[in-house]
Structures are given as structure tokens and as C-alpha cells.
Amino acid sequence: MTVWLTRITPDPRSRDARRDITGTAGAIGLHRRLMSLFPSDAGPDPRARFGVLFRTEETPTGTHILMQSAHEPGTANLPAGYGTTAARPLDPLLDALRPGLTIRYRCVASAVRKPGASTRALYNLPAVVALSGAAADEWWLRQLDGAGLKPLGLQSHPLDAVRGRRGTHGPAAEQHVRHARTRFDGTAAIIDPGQLRSAIAQGIGRGKSYGCGLLTIAPAPSTS
To answer: Global pTM?
Structure first.
């Protein structure tokens, strides 16, 4: 299965692009836009069916959209003037993964924990509790272990939470969703390439329809 990485550079003159990046629909509006690039007959969970993960990144030239998928996106479906796109398969990178290789990584993730039932009842806690600071870092280190990686360096940066409605029709349209976000950057050594490939393909954590969970990697520069 080929994994595709697509970079979309929105044109600030495009009303559609501006609405997707800064509009009141938030990340779920951008999610719907990106899902329009894939076949519409994918069943009840098209995001999972096509392995769609994404995040927005602020660069010196403006906001970019980075999207990963298990199906080549139909970028021609974007509105006229939306922006420029560049898609490439990740197969050469994924095929080159081997134990001992040092990589750089980035992931915007929603770090949370689930309190036990008794603790929730005692303190009237929600089903999941957002983590920040050292607690979020500890959560991330556990995710790296599950992804077959040995951490070598870590920097974390809290980001604004993303919000939206769970759906557009019926009761889901009244259900508001909020995902706290932290951006994790660092270096790691590969322990298990198979686990890493699975983590890249499946994403990490919650909020994947809201721009969370995309793990991107690149070989770290040699220090020799």
C-alpha cells in the first residue's frame, strides 16, 4: 500500500482557502475539504478508509497544509485558485527504515489520559483529561515507545485547542468537540521499523479529524 504525503499551499487571495484556515468551522471544516479529495463511496468512516491525517503548519511564507493518505488525493477537486499542491509517495522513506537509524520527527497530538471510573466519580472529571507540560511529555514518550522508537531529544510546544461540531446533521450537529494540542519535535532512534510504519500510517492519539495525530519523520543529519 502506497502512503502519500501532500503539501497544499493555500493562496491567501482565495476565499475558500481563507475560510478553511481561519473560518468559524475550524479544523473540522478543513477536514471536510480534504475529504472531498477522495472517493465519496468509502463507507461510514472514510477518513480511516483512506488513512487521512493532516495538520497545518506556519512557515515563513504562510500557512501550509500537510496531509497524509493511503490513496492518491484528487487535488483537482480543490476550488479554482485555492492554492498549489505537491504530492509524493512515502514508500522510499518507509522502505529505508531500519533499526538504529536516527530520525527527526514532528507530531501535533492531543495528549490525554482517561481517569478511572471511581476517580471520575469522586472528582466529577470528564471522560478524558487534557495533559500539558511534563505530563504531556510523559504521555508522548509512551507513544514513542509504542511506535518502536527510542527518544533521544524532545521539545514540546503547547498550541491552541481545536474546536468544532461532531457532525453536520442531527444530534451530532449539537455536540461540540474540543481537542487540546501539543506539538512534539525531536530525535529518536528506530528500534522496530514495523511498529514505526504502523504508527505513521495510523496516526497517534485522538482528534485525527481535527488535525491531530500526523507523525512525520526524516533522517537526522549525520554528526560524523
So the answer is: 0.89
